[in-house]
Every structure is written in C-alpha cells, then in structure tokens.
Amino acid sequence: MPADTEVDPRITEEDSDDEEIDENEEFGFVADQGLNRIIIVDHLPVVPKEKFDKLMSVVKKIYGQIGTVAEIKMPVKDDGSSKGFAFVEFSDAAEASAAIDQTNGYKLDRSHIFEVTNFADFDKAISVSDNYSE
Predict the structure, then answer these.
(1) Where are the alpha helices (DSSP H) in 65-130?
(2) Hey, which of 19, 71, 90, 121 would disulfide with 95, CB 3.0 to 4.6 Å?
C-alpha cells in the first residue's frame, strides 16, 4: 500500500469486502424498522438561538405525549437560528404513524400550522413535478 494512502481506522483485517454494510447504522437508525420511525415536522417557527431550547422543549412535549421519542434533530442556520423544521424519531413505526395522524395540521399558533410527513415518504414528495398537468 502506498505511503500516502489513508486507511479507515474502523476497518480491520477481519472485515470482509463482501460483507453487507448497513449505512443507516452509522446514523443511529434501526435497520429493521428503517426510516418509518422518523417524521418530518415542517412549518415550525424560525427562532433565534436564544429561543431554540424553548422551541425544542415544546416539540418534545407535543410528541412525547404521543409516543417514545428517541431523538429530535432541529437543523439550524449558521447564526444558530432554527430553520423551521425538525426530524423526530420514535421508538417504532406505529408511534410515528400516530404522530403524523395526530399532528398533521396541528395549529401551534396563528401563523404556524404543522405539516407532518413520514421520512420514508420524503423521496416521493420531492419527486413531484413543479408543472401541473391534467
């Protein structure tokens, strides 16, 4: 092996090249339930970083009443403010489905009505054409 080639320290000689790698394992997802345990909550308020923790606790409270929340990821901009959406991971797909049913259209306040979808349906949603046809 050339001296300038870096070796991934996670790969050992016991690792086989033909061994199937579960890419979702790296991100903490359980392979047998896949992405059906994760929902996308859109139309959250965009808040500055000073109010981020408050918004996170509100989201945790809402979804914690529906099921066991494994993790919530709320992306932020460079300045630390929220981007207006979150990924909520439940312990199983049934809880995620219940969360969609119970909170899609949930009115947080006058200007923030949740749009909730399953992460597994994300590819279907982004593949919709911008051009309407009958």
Answers:
(1) 93-103, 122-126
(2) 90
pTM assigned to the model: 0.69
Q: Which tokens sit at 89?
A: 């991971």
3-state secondary structure of 4: coil
Token pair 């969360």 is found at 99
The single-letter code of the amino acid at 34 is G
Environment class of 36 (CB within 10 Å of its CB; exposed 0-12, middle 13-18, buried 19+): middle
Q: Rounded to whole angstroms, how far apart are CA atoms 97 and 103? A: 10
Percentage of the chain exceeding pLDDT 90: 63
Task: Report the mean per-residue pLDDT for the chain.
Answer: 80
Q: How many CB atoms lie within 10 A of CB 85?
A: 16
Residue the block writes with tokens 């790698």? 21
Q: Are 116 and 103 in contact (CB under 8 A)?
A: yes
Name 120's Cβ contacts closer than 8 Å, sequence gap at least 6: 34, 35, 36, 38
DSSP 8-state symbol, 19: S
Residue 99 identity (one-letter amino acid) = A
**Under a CB-based contact definition with an 8 Å cutoff, are residues 68 and 90 in contact?**
yes
